[in-house]
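Reviewer 2 asked us to include a model.

Predict the structure of this chain.
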Amino acid sequence: MTRTQKLRGWSFTALLFSLAIVNIYLLWESRLAMAKGFPDFANFYTAGALVDRGQAREIYDTGAQWRVQQEFSSEVKLRRGPLRYLRPPFEALLFALFARCPFPQAFLLWTIFKLALLTAIPFVVVRRRPWKESFPLSLVPLLVLGTVPGFIDVLHGQDATLLAFLVAVAFWQVDKGRDASAGVAFALGLIKFQLVLPLVLALCVAGRKRVLAGFAPCALALLALSAMVVGSHGVLRYPAYLLSFNQSTGLGIAPQLQTNLRGLLTLVIGRSPYPGRIHWLLAPVAVAAMVYAGLLWRKAGPRFLAEGFALAALAAIVTSYYAYSYDLLLLIVPLLAMRTRPQRSMEGNRAITLLESAGLAPLLLTPAYWFAGLGNQCLMTLPLVALMVALWMRLRAAREIAEGRTAPIASVLA
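Predicted model (C-alpha coordinates):
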Protein backbone atom coordinates (compact mmCIF):
# COMPACT_ATOMS: atom_id res chain seq x y z
CA MET A 1 0.00 0.00 0.00
CA THR A 2 1.06 3.56 -0.64
CA ARG A 3 1.22 6.07 2.19
CA THR A 4 -1.94 7.76 0.87
CA GLN A 5 -3.85 4.48 0.86
CA LYS A 6 -2.73 3.69 4.39
CA LEU A 7 -3.74 7.15 5.58
CA ARG A 8 -7.13 6.82 3.91
CA GLY A 9 -7.64 3.38 5.46
CA TRP A 10 -6.73 4.48 8.96
CA SER A 11 -8.87 7.63 8.64
CA PHE A 12 -11.90 5.54 7.72
CA THR A 13 -11.09 3.14 10.55
CA ALA A 14 -10.86 6.00 13.04
CA LEU A 15 -14.23 7.32 11.87
CA LEU A 16 -15.95 3.96 12.28
CA PHE A 17 -14.22 3.45 15.63
CA SER A 18 -15.54 6.81 16.84
CA LEU A 19 -19.05 5.96 15.68
CA ALA A 20 -18.78 2.58 17.39
CA ILE A 21 -17.94 4.28 20.70
CA VAL A 22 -20.92 6.62 20.27
CA ASN A 23 -23.21 3.70 19.44
CA ILE A 24 -21.99 1.69 22.42
CA TYR A 25 -22.75 4.70 24.63
CA LEU A 26 -26.25 4.92 23.14
CA LEU A 27 -26.76 1.21 23.78
CA TRP A 28 -25.69 1.68 27.39
CA GLU A 29 -28.07 4.62 27.82
CA SER A 30 -30.90 2.50 26.37
CA ARG A 31 -30.28 -0.47 28.64
CA LEU A 32 -33.21 0.21 31.01
CA ALA A 33 -35.71 0.57 28.16
CA MET A 34 -34.29 -2.54 26.52
CA ALA A 35 -34.69 -4.51 29.74
CA LYS A 36 -38.37 -3.53 29.93
CA GLY A 37 -39.22 -5.22 26.63
CA PHE A 38 -38.95 -2.42 24.07
CA PRO A 39 -36.62 -4.24 21.61
CA ASP A 40 -37.79 -6.53 18.81
CA PHE A 41 -36.26 -9.38 20.79
CA ALA A 42 -39.56 -9.40 22.70
CA ASN A 43 -41.23 -11.38 19.90
CA PHE A 44 -38.39 -13.93 19.78
CA TYR A 45 -38.53 -14.30 23.55
CA THR A 46 -42.31 -14.73 23.40
CA ALA A 47 -42.10 -17.57 20.88
CA GLY A 48 -39.35 -19.23 22.91
CA ALA A 49 -41.38 -18.92 26.12
CA LEU A 50 -44.41 -20.57 24.49
CA VAL A 51 -42.23 -23.43 23.25
CA ASP A 52 -40.61 -23.82 26.67
CA ARG A 53 -44.06 -23.95 28.33
CA GLY A 54 -45.30 -26.67 26.00
CA GLN A 55 -47.52 -24.25 24.07
CA ALA A 56 -45.51 -24.28 20.84
CA ARG A 57 -48.62 -24.51 18.66
CA GLU A 58 -49.65 -21.06 19.90
CA ILE A 59 -46.53 -19.16 18.82
CA TYR A 60 -48.53 -17.53 16.00
CA ASP A 61 -51.61 -16.88 18.14
CA THR A 62 -51.84 -13.16 18.89
CA GLY A 63 -53.76 -13.72 22.12
CA ALA A 64 -51.09 -16.06 23.48
CA GLN A 65 -48.35 -13.68 22.34
CA TRP A 66 -50.00 -10.75 24.11
CA ARG A 67 -50.43 -12.66 27.37
CA VAL A 68 -46.75 -13.63 27.46
CA GLN A 69 -45.54 -10.14 26.57
CA GLN A 70 -47.62 -8.58 29.31
CA GLU A 71 -45.58 -10.60 31.78
CA PHE A 72 -42.33 -8.78 30.96
CA SER A 73 -43.21 -5.70 28.88
CA SER A 74 -46.32 -4.31 30.51
CA GLU A 75 -44.57 -0.94 30.89
CA VAL A 76 -44.34 -0.56 27.10
CA LYS A 77 -47.42 1.63 26.65
CA LEU A 78 -46.79 2.32 22.95
CA ARG A 79 -48.05 -1.10 21.93
CA ARG A 80 -51.75 -1.83 21.66
CA GLY A 81 -51.13 -5.41 20.65
CA PRO A 82 -48.38 -8.00 20.69
CA LEU A 83 -45.08 -7.66 18.92
CA ARG A 84 -45.65 -10.59 16.58
CA TYR A 85 -43.28 -13.46 15.95
CA LEU A 86 -42.72 -13.74 12.18
CA ARG A 87 -39.90 -16.24 11.81
CA PRO A 88 -40.37 -19.91 10.79
CA PRO A 89 -41.31 -22.28 13.62
CA PHE A 90 -37.96 -24.05 13.84
CA GLU A 91 -36.12 -20.90 14.95
CA ALA A 92 -38.35 -20.68 18.03
CA LEU A 93 -36.51 -23.74 19.38
CA LEU A 94 -33.36 -21.63 19.65
CA PHE A 95 -35.15 -18.90 21.56
CA ALA A 96 -36.66 -21.44 23.92
CA LEU A 97 -33.17 -21.79 25.40
CA PHE A 98 -33.01 -18.06 26.15
CA ALA A 99 -36.62 -17.92 27.38
CA ARG A 100 -35.69 -20.05 30.39
CA CYS A 101 -34.21 -16.85 31.87
CA PRO A 102 -36.07 -13.65 32.79
CA PHE A 103 -36.31 -11.24 29.86
CA PRO A 104 -33.47 -8.84 30.89
CA GLN A 105 -31.00 -11.70 31.37
CA ALA A 106 -32.20 -13.43 28.20
CA PHE A 107 -31.67 -10.26 26.18
CA LEU A 108 -28.17 -9.87 27.62
CA LEU A 109 -27.28 -13.49 26.81
CA TRP A 110 -28.68 -13.10 23.28
CA THR A 111 -26.57 -9.99 22.78
CA ILE A 112 -23.43 -11.74 24.01
CA PHE A 113 -24.18 -14.69 21.73
CA LYS A 114 -24.54 -12.38 18.73
CA LEU A 115 -21.36 -10.49 19.53
CA ALA A 116 -19.52 -13.82 19.62
CA LEU A 117 -20.89 -14.66 16.17
CA LEU A 118 -19.99 -11.19 14.91
CA THR A 119 -16.44 -11.66 16.16
CA ALA A 120 -16.20 -14.99 14.35
CA ILE A 121 -17.51 -13.77 10.96
CA PRO A 122 -14.30 -12.02 9.78
CA PHE A 123 -12.17 -15.06 10.58
CA VAL A 124 -14.58 -17.39 8.78
CA VAL A 125 -14.69 -15.25 5.64
CA VAL A 126 -10.99 -14.36 5.52
CA ARG A 127 -9.88 -17.89 6.44
CA ARG A 128 -6.55 -18.58 4.69
CA ARG A 129 -6.96 -15.48 2.53
CA PRO A 130 -4.45 -12.60 2.45
CA TRP A 131 -5.85 -9.68 4.46
CA LYS A 132 -4.96 -6.50 2.55
CA GLU A 133 -6.31 -3.81 4.89
CA SER A 134 -4.05 -1.57 6.98
CA PHE A 135 -5.99 -2.28 10.20
CA PRO A 136 -5.98 -5.69 11.93
CA LEU A 137 -8.76 -8.18 11.20
CA SER A 138 -9.56 -8.45 14.91
CA LEU A 139 -10.76 -4.83 14.84
CA VAL A 140 -13.55 -5.57 12.33
CA PRO A 141 -16.26 -6.61 14.86
CA LEU A 142 -15.88 -3.35 16.79
CA LEU A 143 -15.92 -1.33 13.57
CA VAL A 144 -19.14 -3.08 12.50
CA LEU A 145 -20.82 -1.60 15.59
CA GLY A 146 -20.10 1.79 14.06
CA THR A 147 -22.24 0.97 11.05
CA VAL A 148 -26.01 1.34 10.71
CA PRO A 149 -26.82 -2.39 10.39
CA GLY A 150 -24.59 -3.46 13.28
CA PHE A 151 -25.91 -0.81 15.65
CA ILE A 152 -29.59 -1.36 14.80
CA ASP A 153 -29.27 -5.13 15.06
CA VAL A 154 -27.83 -4.95 18.58
CA LEU A 155 -30.22 -2.19 19.67
CA HIS A 156 -33.33 -4.11 18.61
CA GLY A 157 -32.08 -7.57 19.50
CA GLN A 158 -32.67 -8.79 15.96
CA ASP A 159 -31.25 -11.96 14.40
CA ALA A 160 -29.41 -10.39 11.44
CA THR A 161 -26.04 -11.33 12.96
CA LEU A 162 -27.10 -14.98 13.11
CA LEU A 163 -28.04 -14.93 9.42
CA ALA A 164 -24.79 -13.14 8.52
CA PHE A 165 -22.80 -15.82 10.34
CA LEU A 166 -24.60 -18.64 8.50
CA VAL A 167 -24.05 -16.91 5.17
CA ALA A 168 -20.37 -16.42 6.10
CA VAL A 169 -20.07 -20.18 6.62
CA ALA A 170 -21.84 -20.76 3.30
CA PHE A 171 -19.49 -18.36 1.51
CA TRP A 172 -16.46 -20.09 3.01
CA GLN A 173 -17.72 -23.48 1.81
CA VAL A 174 -18.49 -22.18 -1.69
CA ASP A 175 -15.01 -20.66 -1.83
CA LYS A 176 -13.54 -24.08 -0.97
CA GLY A 177 -15.68 -25.85 -3.58
CA ARG A 178 -17.82 -27.57 -0.98
CA ASP A 179 -21.12 -26.47 -2.46
CA ALA A 180 -23.25 -29.15 -0.76
CA SER A 181 -21.99 -28.07 2.67
CA ALA A 182 -22.75 -24.47 1.71
CA GLY A 183 -26.29 -25.58 0.92
CA VAL A 184 -26.71 -26.84 4.48
CA ALA A 185 -25.64 -23.45 5.86
CA PHE A 186 -28.02 -21.68 3.47
CA ALA A 187 -30.87 -23.95 4.60
CA LEU A 188 -30.25 -23.02 8.23
CA GLY A 189 -30.42 -19.41 7.05
CA LEU A 190 -34.05 -19.94 6.03
CA ILE A 191 -34.89 -18.09 9.22
CA LYS A 192 -35.09 -15.27 6.64
CA PHE A 193 -36.16 -17.23 3.60
CA GLN A 194 -36.99 -14.06 1.65
CA LEU A 195 -33.25 -13.31 1.50
CA VAL A 196 -31.78 -16.81 1.36
CA LEU A 197 -33.94 -18.33 -1.40
CA PRO A 198 -32.91 -15.64 -3.94
CA LEU A 199 -29.24 -16.19 -3.02
CA VAL A 200 -29.59 -19.92 -3.66
CA LEU A 201 -31.27 -19.19 -7.00
CA ALA A 202 -28.41 -16.90 -8.05
CA LEU A 203 -25.85 -19.53 -7.05
CA CYS A 204 -27.60 -22.18 -9.14
CA VAL A 205 -27.74 -19.87 -12.16
CA ALA A 206 -24.05 -19.09 -11.60
CA GLY A 207 -23.28 -22.79 -12.06
CA ARG A 208 -23.10 -23.89 -8.41
CA LYS A 209 -26.05 -26.31 -8.58
CA ARG A 210 -24.39 -28.67 -6.11
CA VAL A 211 -25.62 -26.25 -3.46
CA LEU A 212 -29.04 -27.87 -3.86
CA ALA A 213 -27.61 -31.24 -2.76
CA GLY A 214 -27.18 -29.87 0.74
CA PHE A 215 -29.90 -27.23 0.70
CA ALA A 216 -32.91 -29.33 -0.34
CA PRO A 217 -32.64 -32.19 2.22
CA CYS A 218 -31.77 -29.80 5.06
CA ALA A 219 -34.68 -27.52 4.14
CA LEU A 220 -37.05 -30.52 4.12
CA ALA A 221 -35.71 -31.58 7.52
CA LEU A 222 -36.37 -28.08 8.89
CA LEU A 223 -39.87 -28.18 7.42
CA ALA A 224 -40.50 -31.47 9.21
CA LEU A 225 -39.07 -29.99 12.41
CA SER A 226 -41.38 -26.99 12.04
CA ALA A 227 -44.34 -29.36 11.66
CA MET A 228 -43.31 -31.02 14.91
CA VAL A 229 -43.26 -27.63 16.63
CA VAL A 230 -46.55 -26.11 15.46
CA GLY A 231 -48.22 -29.06 13.73
CA SER A 232 -48.81 -29.52 10.02
CA HIS A 233 -51.83 -27.23 10.20
CA GLY A 234 -49.68 -24.51 11.74
CA VAL A 235 -47.12 -24.82 8.95
CA LEU A 236 -49.83 -24.54 6.30
CA ARG A 237 -51.27 -21.46 7.99
CA TYR A 238 -47.90 -19.72 8.30
CA PRO A 239 -47.97 -18.01 4.85
CA ALA A 240 -51.49 -16.68 5.50
CA TYR A 241 -50.33 -15.47 8.91
CA LEU A 242 -47.55 -13.42 7.30
CA LEU A 243 -49.89 -11.97 4.68
CA SER A 244 -52.53 -11.04 7.24
CA PHE A 245 -49.89 -9.25 9.27
CA ASN A 246 -48.88 -7.31 6.19
CA GLN A 247 -52.47 -6.34 5.38
CA SER A 248 -53.24 -5.00 8.85
CA THR A 249 -52.60 -1.48 10.06
CA GLY A 250 -50.91 -0.46 13.29
CA LEU A 251 -48.89 -3.66 13.65
CA GLY A 252 -45.45 -2.38 12.79
CA ILE A 253 -45.33 -3.21 9.08
CA ALA A 254 -44.73 -0.03 7.11
CA PRO A 255 -43.16 -0.61 3.67
CA GLN A 256 -41.59 2.85 3.65
CA LEU A 257 -39.49 1.75 6.64
CA GLN A 258 -37.85 -0.98 4.59
CA THR A 259 -34.65 -0.69 2.58
CA ASN A 260 -35.96 -2.26 -0.63
CA LEU A 261 -37.73 -1.57 -3.89
CA ARG A 262 -41.08 -2.24 -2.28
CA GLY A 263 -40.48 0.60 0.16
CA LEU A 264 -39.52 3.03 -2.59
CA LEU A 265 -42.55 2.12 -4.69
CA THR A 266 -44.83 2.49 -1.70
CA LEU A 267 -43.38 5.93 -1.04
CA VAL A 268 -44.21 6.93 -4.64
CA ILE A 269 -47.50 5.10 -5.24
CA GLY A 270 -49.03 5.20 -1.81
CA ARG A 271 -48.53 4.33 1.84
CA SER A 272 -51.35 1.81 2.28
CA PRO A 273 -50.21 -1.32 4.13
CA TYR A 274 -51.10 -3.61 1.23
CA PRO A 275 -50.76 -1.78 -2.11
CA GLY A 276 -51.75 -4.49 -4.55
CA ARG A 277 -50.30 -2.79 -7.61
CA ILE A 278 -46.80 -3.11 -6.19
CA HIS A 279 -47.05 -6.85 -5.59
CA TRP A 280 -47.59 -7.53 -9.28
CA LEU A 281 -44.23 -5.87 -9.96
CA LEU A 282 -42.11 -7.37 -7.19
CA ALA A 283 -42.06 -11.08 -8.06
CA PRO A 284 -41.00 -10.83 -11.73
CA VAL A 285 -38.48 -8.09 -10.94
CA ALA A 286 -36.99 -10.18 -8.13
CA VAL A 287 -36.66 -13.32 -10.26
CA ALA A 288 -35.21 -11.38 -13.20
CA ALA A 289 -32.69 -9.60 -10.96
CA MET A 290 -31.44 -12.82 -9.38
CA VAL A 291 -31.19 -14.65 -12.70
CA TYR A 292 -29.30 -11.78 -14.29
CA ALA A 293 -26.96 -11.49 -11.28
CA GLY A 294 -26.28 -15.22 -11.48
CA LEU A 295 -25.58 -15.13 -15.23
CA LEU A 296 -23.23 -12.16 -14.91
CA TRP A 297 -21.49 -13.83 -11.99
CA ARG A 298 -21.06 -17.04 -13.99
CA LYS A 299 -19.59 -15.28 -17.02
CA ALA A 300 -17.19 -13.25 -14.86
CA GLY A 301 -15.61 -16.46 -13.60
CA PRO A 302 -14.71 -17.91 -10.19
CA ARG A 303 -12.04 -15.29 -9.58
CA PHE A 304 -14.81 -12.78 -8.88
CA LEU A 305 -16.64 -14.88 -6.30
CA ALA A 306 -16.77 -12.02 -3.77
CA GLU A 307 -18.13 -9.47 -6.26
CA GLY A 308 -20.69 -11.94 -7.62
CA PHE A 309 -21.79 -12.87 -4.12
CA ALA A 310 -22.09 -9.19 -3.20
CA LEU A 311 -24.21 -8.39 -6.27
CA ALA A 312 -26.49 -11.36 -5.56
CA ALA A 313 -26.87 -10.34 -1.90
CA LEU A 314 -27.69 -6.76 -2.86
CA ALA A 315 -30.20 -7.90 -5.48
CA ALA A 316 -31.83 -10.18 -2.90
CA ILE A 317 -32.19 -7.33 -0.41
CA VAL A 318 -33.35 -4.67 -2.87
CA THR A 319 -36.00 -6.90 -4.49
CA SER A 320 -37.10 -8.72 -1.33
CA TYR A 321 -40.52 -8.34 0.21
CA TYR A 322 -39.15 -7.67 3.70
CA ALA A 323 -35.76 -5.99 4.26
CA TYR A 324 -34.83 -3.61 7.04
CA SER A 325 -31.69 -1.66 7.83
CA TYR A 326 -30.29 -4.41 10.07
CA ASP A 327 -30.55 -6.91 7.20
CA LEU A 328 -27.75 -5.01 5.47
CA LEU A 329 -25.41 -6.69 7.96
CA LEU A 330 -25.49 -9.54 5.46
CA LEU A 331 -23.25 -7.46 3.20
CA ILE A 332 -20.34 -7.74 5.64
CA VAL A 333 -19.59 -11.19 4.19
CA PRO A 334 -18.83 -10.27 0.55
CA LEU A 335 -17.34 -6.90 1.52
CA LEU A 336 -14.80 -8.61 3.77
CA ALA A 337 -13.99 -11.11 1.04
CA MET A 338 -13.48 -8.30 -1.47
CA ARG A 339 -10.90 -6.75 0.85
CA THR A 340 -8.74 -9.88 0.61
CA ARG A 341 -8.16 -9.36 -3.09
CA PRO A 342 -4.84 -7.91 -4.29
CA GLN A 343 -5.05 -4.16 -4.00
CA ARG A 344 -4.50 -3.43 -7.68
CA SER A 345 -7.38 -5.70 -8.72
CA MET A 346 -9.72 -3.90 -6.36
CA GLU A 347 -8.95 -0.44 -7.69
CA GLY A 348 -11.70 0.63 -10.08
CA ASN A 349 -11.95 3.45 -12.52
CA ARG A 350 -13.29 6.76 -11.26
CA ALA A 351 -16.93 5.96 -12.01
CA ILE A 352 -16.77 2.67 -10.12
CA THR A 353 -14.97 4.29 -7.19
CA LEU A 354 -17.52 7.09 -6.93
CA LEU A 355 -20.46 4.70 -7.11
CA GLU A 356 -18.95 2.43 -4.46
CA SER A 357 -18.29 5.41 -2.17
CA ALA A 358 -21.80 6.76 -2.74
CA GLY A 359 -23.24 3.33 -2.02
CA LEU A 360 -21.24 2.45 1.08
CA ALA A 361 -20.86 5.75 2.93
CA PRO A 362 -24.55 6.36 3.77
CA LEU A 363 -25.04 2.71 4.68
CA LEU A 364 -22.02 2.50 6.95
CA LEU A 365 -22.33 5.83 8.74
CA THR A 366 -25.07 6.12 11.35
CA PRO A 367 -25.67 9.89 10.95
CA ALA A 368 -26.72 9.30 7.34
CA TYR A 369 -29.34 6.87 8.60
CA TRP A 370 -30.75 9.57 10.87
CA PHE A 371 -30.65 12.07 8.02
CA ALA A 372 -32.81 9.77 5.87
CA GLY A 373 -35.58 10.22 8.40
CA LEU A 374 -37.16 7.58 10.58
CA GLY A 375 -40.30 7.59 8.46
CA ASN A 376 -38.63 7.19 5.06
CA GLN A 377 -35.87 4.66 5.57
CA CYS A 378 -36.67 3.28 2.12
CA LEU A 379 -34.56 6.15 0.76
CA MET A 380 -31.53 4.17 1.93
CA THR A 381 -32.32 1.83 -0.99
CA LEU A 382 -30.81 4.38 -3.36
CA PRO A 383 -27.24 3.88 -2.07
CA LEU A 384 -27.79 0.13 -2.44
CA VAL A 385 -28.67 0.61 -6.09
CA ALA A 386 -25.52 2.71 -6.59
CA LEU A 387 -23.42 -0.07 -5.08
CA MET A 388 -25.18 -2.62 -7.31
CA VAL A 389 -24.29 -0.59 -10.39
CA ALA A 390 -20.63 -0.43 -9.32
CA LEU A 391 -20.51 -4.21 -8.85
CA TRP A 392 -22.30 -4.70 -12.17
CA MET A 393 -19.60 -2.63 -13.87
CA ARG A 394 -16.86 -4.72 -12.28
CA LEU A 395 -18.43 -8.03 -13.26
CA ARG A 396 -19.27 -6.81 -16.73
CA ALA A 397 -15.63 -5.81 -17.25
CA ALA A 398 -14.53 -9.22 -15.98
CA ARG A 399 -16.97 -10.95 -18.35
CA GLU A 400 -15.63 -9.01 -21.33
CA ILE A 401 -12.10 -10.01 -20.37
CA ALA A 402 -13.13 -13.66 -20.06
CA GLU A 403 -14.70 -13.49 -23.52
CA GLY A 404 -11.57 -11.84 -24.95
CA ARG A 405 -13.38 -8.65 -25.95
CA THR A 406 -11.19 -6.22 -24.01
CA ALA A 407 -7.80 -5.72 -22.39
CA PRO A 408 -6.54 -7.50 -19.26
CA ILE A 409 -8.17 -6.69 -15.93
CA ALA A 410 -5.28 -4.57 -14.74
CA SER A 411 -5.81 -2.08 -17.56
CA VAL A 412 -9.62 -2.17 -17.49
CA LEU A 413 -9.97 -1.56 -13.76
CA ALA A 414 -6.86 0.57 -13.28
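The chain has 21 helices and no strands. Residues 3-35+101-412 form one domain. We have added this to the supplementary material.
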